[in-house]
Design brief:
Elements lengths: L11 H17 L3 E7 L3 H12 L4 E5 L17 E5 L3 H5 L5 E3 L4 E5 H15 L2 E4 L1 E8 L5 E8 H6 L6 E10 L6 H9 L16 E3 L1 H11 L1 E4 L2 E3 L2 H7 L2 E2 L5 H14 L1
Parallel strand pairs: 1-2, 1-9, 2-6, 9-12, 10-13
Antiparallel strand pairs: 3-5, 4-5, 7-8, 8-9, 11-12
Amino acid sequence: MSLDAKSLRFDELTVTRGIVESFMHDFLDAIDLDVAVAGAGPSGLTAARLLADEGLKVAVFERNLHIGGGIWGGGMLFPRIVIEEEAADLLTDVGVRLRPWQDGTLIADAVESATKMTATAIDAGARIFVGIEVEDVVVDDDDRISGVVINWGAVEAAGLHVDPLGVHAQVVIDGTGHPSEVSRTVLRKVPGASFGSDFDCVPGEASMHAPRGEAALVVNTKEIYPGLIVTGMAANAVTKSYRMGAIFGGMLLSGRRAADERS
């Protein structure tokens, strides 16, 4: 079937109105949330899907124009990831095909994993906004985290001064990966904020030790400040736990743990 410009009834105004009106409808529905997730990496997407499955209103804010965080690159741009058998269901549940490997691990295609995790999170009811970053948090009268402050990712990249907007949420999940940006912001800006550790800052993760890093990741996934749950690599960065490389089972289990913490 071919298209004939003379027979098409829409014009440029139809396209513009369709984009702006539909986006604004969804955006306005996402400014008062049960859960706001910062970062569309594997742990954030997993948490968002599971929470949306429970009927909660969930939105994910990702500063980049792509989703998946570090999962896209696999290991050193080889688009494959390794996961432990214990986390296999979190990928098979979203339709990812796994191949047995060795020592209790399996292999998954990184691109298939990222796209299917995203599609199923959306199907569950989570809204995913790309190009929008979390630049700050909202606090209530008790200094509990009660939302996020958002802006276009391009605004920061361009160095522009543009005031942001606030989004209310009962709980915020920091899934921003190695930078752990939301957690750093809370420590820096909320008076008297502490995560109850030996560190008065976010120290970043330690060097690579895959088994220790994977084991620590799930333990470190928790509410570290009232209203703030940390997940994924941000959880290990907050505690200076080991990094693990391109094995992602801990990331998925961390997302599940974050959802359980909210529940």
